[in-house]
Amino acid sequence: MKLQFIFLAVLLSLQLSLTAQNVTITGSALGAGGKTIELKTQADMISSVQKTLSKSLIDRESERFKMQTLVNQTTHVYLTIDNYVYYFYIEPNRTYEIKIDTFDYYQDEVINPFLKQIDLPVELLNVDKEDINVKMVAFNDWFDNYITQYQNGLFILHQKAYLDTLSMWSDSLFGKINNTYFQTFRKYTIAEIALTGAFQKRMYLADNYLLNKNINYHNEAYQSFFNNFFEKYLSTGAPKLNTKKLKTLLQNYNLAGILDSLGYDPALRDERIRELVFLKCMKDAFLSPDYNDKQVLDLLRRFSNYTKFPEHKEIAENLLNSLPIGVSGNMGTQFSLKDADGNVVGLNRFKDKNVLLMFYTYKCDACLDDFETLNLLVKKYHLDNVEFVAVSCDKEVVLFKHSMEELSKYPWTFLHYGGDNQMLSNYGVKTYPSYILLNEDGVITQNPVPSPSSKQFLPVLKKLAQ
Question: What is d(CA 436, CA 427) in angstroms, rounded to the nearest whole number?
């Protein structure tokens, strides 16, 4: 059986390599010389894992970059520089010339404390009116305007005539565009309105949009429709799989029992859809406090060796690699960061001690206030078994080094994040300051930890002092 899966994976890889064609992206990024630009896409429709397709160092003098990748179909991608992003579409055998206008790459340190992505000011220079990016903008603008104008009739009065008109006008304006990705996107975007507005029965939607239909693993409108169709499936939608039964099946590692239970739902009579719903259920179960994380991960491993669909095996592997990261009860992500003197410090230096990771920026007043409070608490309680590790997320190393003139008075280790945004993502850092507690074995015991300035922090500290 294992050899069969290896063969399937190799066969899928060979098929992709034979059909994939080169895509080149060149351009300029004014004011971003010396930074890294990356081209990414969503790896699959369930795990939310990001896949890097290519990356390039932006030349310091010319401020130009060049990236290349292989794709075998229209692909929704995004460019990232630091925490700034631009979404667009690429197609096989194309070259895209891009201009990124002058931009303040440090504004998120001041106005964006929650690390929300900010749009890059990007212009596609060599696309004509037939390019899919132009078509998608036109459709999305038209669609948004229609929904805004008729939202009362659609979602409050639930008058199906507004849905029928939406579909009719969409066909008239965009039905002749000869692009499979675009037409699939258009179809499932309208289908999601039918789902959200409850205009059509569940089985009608399943029969017309899911069962025995092509599964568009990499079309974001299909993904959105699928995930909304099976939203909260474990708690509200599964006819023969309630929380109690799933717990029993998980405890017995009964993969076949779970898939059989899902099969009682007529909307899941298609084996491929049934497996995708299983994967979504396992992700939801892992993120729910009602289920045992280790049992969920074990079932995912078993499924990865069971499924005959290479795409589903890939999703299972992505879930196995991504779900445990940053979650309490799982290992903290290893890192190698530099201190102000350029010495490399790894997380393993602090083994056999509890570690409080503190992510901050020097421009963050709340961070500096917390430092002062924490310093007073550290003096009051004897915490020889705790290492305090402050990770500066200031973009400029110069600022980090300069700040040590003030911050070196605090008795803990200061490191610079070195532009490692993946580490921040792995630890789930979404705001500054952020605090995460690891035990002596490097296992995350609490994420997030309350701010030292809050009343909820003191019990954490007292427990460590015991």
Answer: 8
